[in-house]
Amino acid sequence: MTDRLRILHLSDTHLYGDGRLHYGLVDTLAGLDRVLVRAGELEAVDLVVASGDLSDDGSAASYRLLRERLEPWAAARGAVVAYAMGNHDLPGPFEEVLGARETVLPVRGFRVVTVDTTVARSGYGLIGAERLDRLREVLATPSANGTIVVLHHPPVPPTTGLFETLRLVDPAPLLDVCSQGDVRLILGGHYHHALATSAGGRDIPVVVAPAVANTTDVLWPPPRERAERGAGFAMVELSADGTVRAHVVRAPAADDGETVYDLSAEAIARIAADAGWKGAS
């Protein structure tokens, strides 16, 4: 047991089982391989977190590609792997290849709890009473060094307009449960850009990993939304006293910065109508 946990946090790999390109442009499997080569420079890793949208087509083949890369990489370093469901993931193939959608993993005196925030055929996230009760029951017994909650939809507001109706709906109950327990850190993805902030009654640190598939341009003027080529990950250290240090690392390629998509306000409205939370203002 140790009083410090070293985490490789990656998200939004958006893999395809048949080798297709994301948006017809991006080889996401090559991006994942590049991320793992770059992350191989880390001095040590105890935990590998993959926080959702692991597949884009939801195929078992895509999850096998992910597992075949992450698990040997982690095993070579004595690390544990935690997978979380994202809105692009499909429950059946996910569970067939990666295991249960919600898990509790002990890692060096810390506890890692994955929470499924997905809603079938929707882009937004929601945590119902059953999932909250399950998390509350887990947290009722403290772990030695504290708990890390891993989910896809971050319990903090989005930075860009595309995610306004694709956010986690009503995160307050989740944050209340986490604040009442021994949660030291919340890890998420979904936004396709790095973010470090805090939330809840205890100001629990929240780290959102950059995506492997592409990078949201947080400076692009609204109401448009742009993503560019670029892959990265977060390296996070968590101490038993609750101290968190997070760094964002890019895994560069020659075409980084090229536009993957540039959405108009009308295109964003169509996405909201198709997959967004209908109760959004």
From TrEMBL:
Pfam families: Metallophos
Protein family per UniProt: Belongs to the cyclic nucleotide phosphodiesterase class-III family.
Matches recorded under InterPro entries: Calcineurin-like_PHP, CNP_phosphodiesterase-III, Metallo-depent_PP-like
Name this protein carries in UniProt: Calcineurin-like phosphoesterase domain-containing protein
Keyword check for Metal-binding: yes
PANTHER family from the UniProt entry: CYCLIC NUCLEOTIDE PHOSPHODIESTERASE CBUA0032-RELATED, PHOSPHOHYDROLASE
Keywords: Hydrolase, Iron, Metal-binding
GO molecular function: hydrolase activity; metal ion binding
Superkingdom assignment: Bacteria
Domain Calcineurin-like phosphoesterase: 5-193
